[in-house]
Amino acid sequence: MSELHDLTVVEQCRHLQARTVGAQELLAHYQTRIAAHGESLGAFVTLTPELASAEAVAADRRRASEPDGDLPVLLGLPLAYKDLHPVKGVVGTFGSRPLRTRVSDLDGECVAAFRRAGAVTVGTTHAPEFGPTCYTESDLGVRPAVTPYDTSRYASGSSGGAAAAVAAGLLPAAHASDGAGSIRTPASVCGLVGFKPSRGAVPVAASTFISWTVEGPITRTVADAALLTGVLTDGSPHDLYRIECGLDGPAAPRPARVLAYADTGIGACDPDVLTAFDTAVAALEALGHEVDVATNPRPWDDALVEAMLRVFATTVTATSRRLVPPEQWPELRQFTRWCLEATAGLDSADFALAQAVLAQAAGAHAAAALHYDVVLTPTTARPAQTIGAFDAGSLEGAVRRMLEWSAFTPWANMTGAPALALPIAMSRDGLPVGVQLCGRRPGSDAAVLALGAALEQAVGWQHHPPQWAS
After folding, report:
1. Would you call 122 helix, strand, or coil by DSSP?
2. Fewest CB atoms within 10 Å of the CB: 222, 226, 277, 393?
């Protein structure tokens, strides 16, 4: 057999089911790798070795006592959960120093789904304070989450720790979440698959009428992403957006109509990104699909940038005010404090109008996709950025720089459509570069995953960072 971390999630689950690998053996393998590389990659905030050991022992005992039973699909698989989502009995910091001793008294909806499916709780992965940035830094004594391909560069965010861990073989896959690209951009810069399901396909712990955030997996293969997404689609009586996404059966194998564009609408794309995009277009055409290369249906302009800034700053402010008492606000990170200041003069009408501006633009993207099966874009405008790249100048300028880098991803959050990030090529500097496949509407998850699997096979991505072999 290969090294255990060489196996995909699907393969590991098969070995666990056949009892050719035990949950305790698999956990020990990953814990050894975490000890070797986790700290240098900034991947984890909290590790739970005693809880993980107890759950692995229980998984092995259950499998031994019920050899022919209908057992949970992930029974014994090690997973970690993003530190923006509660895990019962585990410190949940939301990336914030004032919350560094806060123990969660319940599981988030998707965390609970993975745990019901038998996953072993390894710990929590690094995320930025309350999750608004496309890089992962915090004041929790953890170094920035970095891509294992170049540890001087960010693993993006806000699921940066999750992506760093999976890319280096410290986890077989990881739980993540995505409010404007936070699954897809970390997956892209770490050479991984990241899937944001349709809004409503998986439960949301605290649904609101304005929620863009969806939880989903970061994995190494599309098949793994489909398996883990399937675990999350049971729904919840608390979810306002519940829809069916049809993951029970594959999409019909037929030529797809693909709308493709590579202009961000706010800045230039790196040549390596454009090369990867062209590679994906050529591969899809070679598979027999019809690809229409067009221009961005609704480029970003100053009004959209301002609206995005207001929505994100207001969301961060609401979370900060809910979780952190005012006397501890001086302990918050500079970007969070800036969000509090930026929203001080806004009222509910300002927020509603910002939402309306973005919704109108999202409608233009949805309309452009109406007569297509999927939309193909780059995932990010440039490969992984160096640590500190977004900090130069004003904080308001940092928001624009983040948006220029991740301009392709927020539209799927606004429309609610599913979106899949796939690794395609390596840059001239040896960094992963990927593309994004978006569904034309919510509920088209199966079509996106099916086309993504075909593109994945055609491209044949086989790269790993240096830590993989050590």
Report:
1. strand
2. 393
Exposure on the CB side of residue 438, measured as CA atoms within 13 A = 28
- In order, the DSSP letters of 282-317 are HHHHHTT-EEEE---SS---HHHHHHHHHHHHHHHH
158 catalytic? Reply is yes
Please count the other Cβ atoms lying within 10 Å of the Cβ belonging to residue 128.
28
Q: 340-393, pLDDT tens digit by residue?
A: 999 999 999 999 999 999 999 999 999 999 999 999 999 999 999 999 999 866
Question: Which residue reads 């897809």 in tokens?
Answer: 184
The helix or strand, by DSSP H or E, that contains position 56, with its residue range, turns out to be helix 49-65
Which member of 104, 156, 158, 427 is catalytic? 158
Q: Determine which helix (DSSP H) or strand (DSSP E) holds 70, and give its type and residue range.
A: none
Per-residue exposure over 302-319, b if at least 16 CB sit within 10 Å of its own CB, e if not: eebbebbbbbbbbbbbeb
* Entry pTM: 0.97
Report whether 222 contacts 413 (CB < 8 A): no
**Three-state SS for 335?**
helix
Alpha carbons 470 and 431: distance in angstroms, whole number: 19
82 assigned to active site: yes
Please give the structure tokens belonging to residue 427: 């840059």
Q: Which pairs count as long-range contacts for 357-360, CB under 8 Å and 24+ apart, including other chains?
A: 357/303, 357/304, 357/307, 358/304, 358/307, 358/308, 358/311, 358/414, 359/414
Beta carbons within 8 Å of 189's beta carbon, 6+ residues apart: 147, 149, 153, 154, 155, 156, 163, 380, 383, 384, 431, 432
Q: In what order do the strands lie in the sheet with 78-82?
A: 44-47, 120-125, 78-82
Which is the catalytic residue, given 96, 177, 182, 427?
182
pLDDT tens string 269-296: 999 999 999 999 999 999 999 999 999 9
Paired sense of beta strands 257-260 and 290-293, if any: parallel
Question: Which of 156, 241, 167 shows the shortest CA–CA distance to 202?
Answer: 241
Q: Is the pLDDT of residue 243 over 70?
A: yes
- Residue 208 identity: T
Handedness of CA 313, 316, 319, 321 (dihedral sign): negative
- Catalytic site includes residue 88: no
Sign of the alpha-carbon torsion through 437, 439, 443, 446:
negative
How far apart are alpha carbons 380 and 431 in whole angstroms? 13
- Tell me whether the omega of the peptide bond preceding residue 158 falls within 30 degrees of 0, making it cis: yes
Domains of the chain: 9-469 (3.90.1300.10)
- The rounded distance, in Å, linking the Cα atoms of 105 and 127 is 20
